Amino acid sequence: MKRPLWLDIALMILIPIMGMALGVAVTVLLNFDQENYNSNLVINLFFLTACIGLLCVFKFSRGELGLKIVKEKIRWHVIASLAVFSLYMLFYVFVIRISSLKPISANTVWGLLTYLVVVIAEELYFRGMVYGFFKKRFSGKTALIVSSLLFGIFHASQGLEGILSRTITGWLWGSVRYSSKMIFLLIFPIHFAYNVIWLLFEGNWSDPPVWVIYGLPAIEFLLGLAIVILHDHRSAGKPQS
């Protein structure tokens, strides 16, 4: 028997939340420091497990997950991903002014492992399953907007500013998925590099210029919008088969 749409949407949202909540409960029972990478690793492993559960429930295809190679879109996937990656590298080099590597410690190794799990789980869920779910039932633009909003909401622990910032970041990364139908380069290097560079490099992390708080999200939004518009323009110019 086919499930109603409202139930499918509820399952898509609630199962990962329940997974994260269970992960938090486990870290509390184990008396882990909530600011420690060990704690974050456990929580995100539960989140990833919940995502795998969603795969079993909805039986997504590789195409719906963005994990199917679309030959005619490979070039655009690389170009759009390179544009996003270049934006962050320019930001890190000229604004944060990253320089030398930080001393490598056990905490650094745990951090890298944690972020490896985070980027796989988040891209699989937000740009993979959420996007694929809403695109199949509504449209690509609806999927882009909903996946971006959920990406922001799932970072509610960072406060309202974090929600807004992550929503716009989700919009930019989602524009690559929207325009290329793939998420490969969103996982590596974009999301992974975005997360781990601050962990590995010295830089002006604690006191960036005030304009960056608004400037970077504005550029992210505009770049994502440009990627969407260019894709739509290119698609409109192609003959219909």
Question: Your description of this structure?
Answer:
This protein has about 240 residues and is mostly helical. The protein has one domain (about 65-235). About 75% of the residues lie in helices and about 0% in strands. Helix 5 crosses helix 7 (about 160-180). The longest helix has about 30 residues, at about 105-135. The chain is globular and about 50 Å long. The protein starts with a helix and ends in a 5-residue tail after the last helix. About 30% of the residues are buried.
Brief summary of the model shown:
The protein has 241 residues and is mainly alpha-helical.
What is the rounded Rg?
A: 18 Å
Ends distance: 35 Å
| Most strands sheet | none
Mean pLDDT: 94
Tell me the domain tally: 1
Helix content class: over 70%
Which term fits the overall shape?
globular
Count all strands and give the number.
Answer: 0
Question: Can you write the helix and strand succession as a string?
Answer: HHHHHHHHH
**How large is the count of helical segments?**
9
Structural class: mainly alpha
Low-confidence stretches: none
Q: Beta fraction of the residues?
A: under 5%
Quick tags:
mainly alpha, 241 residues, 0% strand
List the helices and strands and how they pair.
Elements: H1 5-29, H2 37-58, H3 62-65, H4 74-96, H5 106-137, H6 140-153, H7 159-180, H8 184-200, H9 210-236
Helix pairs in contact: 1-2, 2-5, 4-7, 4-8, 4-9, 5-6, 5-7, 5-8, 6-7, 7-9
